[in-house]
Amino acid sequence: MNNPKYTAFLSIAETGSVKKAAEILGYTQPGISYLISSMEEEWDMQLFVRNYGGTVLTPEGELLLPYIRSVCTCESLLTNKVHEIKNLDAGILRIGTFSSVHINWLPEMVKEYRQKHPGIEVEMKCCDDYDRLEDMICAGEADCGFVILPTSKKLKVTELYSDPVVAVLGTGHPLAGEPCFPVSALDQYPYIQSLVSSESEADAIFSMYDKKPDVAHWVDNDFTMLSMISSGYGFAIFPELLLEHLDFHVLAKPLAPAASRKIAFAVRAAGPVSQTVRSFQDTAFDWVRKWSKSR
Description:
The chain is an alpha/beta fold. It has ten helices and eleven strands. Strands 3, 4, 5, 6, 7, 10 and 11 form a seven-stranded mixed sheet that branches. The chain has a two-stranded antiparallel ribbon with strand order 1-2. The protein has a two-stranded parallel ribbon with strand order 8-9.
């Protein structure tokens, strides 16, 4: 809302009358006069003079007129923009995430969100370094994001989906005909180890069962790993979501006992959550619920 002193100043300047300005703004004449007097006292200068033709600006008032008008215009624009943002008519939403969610969830999820809120500009930031991804959200580089639980940074997280972790092997692997991949066999076959830091799910499983992988190859790309597995170079541990829509001749075997990673929606721990982020979180949870049922 514009400063009432400035609004009174502009109204008197435009109408040339304290009485007309009071009627337009819904003030009494003494009330309008008080606003102008307080400005003159604060700035130690006379802004208006009364004459037979009405109330006119002094030379000092004439000099200040464009600046006061500019301030009122900017305040009006600010008020309108705040209203737009609160009503999700405008704004920017920056989402941080890792590859499997970025590829398999975000395109359709964001499409659905933009249909509801076409005025919101969405930026998607993909980062497969989980620590760096959490830092992005903590530092405000991303307004929200998808992370793996547990997190190492202080974030507000809400669990969203339990993603099975599976053993991926070629069709010629000795366990290809088995219904599952026993964790007791994790160290009995050649393993393809990822150089990507987001492979913490696989590391955690080996650690949990006190197994040391028989690493046959180190690879820095998931697609290369899958290509090598399909050619019989070994097996690897992958989150199931990463395998969506991939056309490789490989088999995904559930681990026995079963294992999974927890995907969560995260925002900064400090400060309020914007309405833009809240609305996207609602869309994300609803989308994942429908996606899970359709599988």
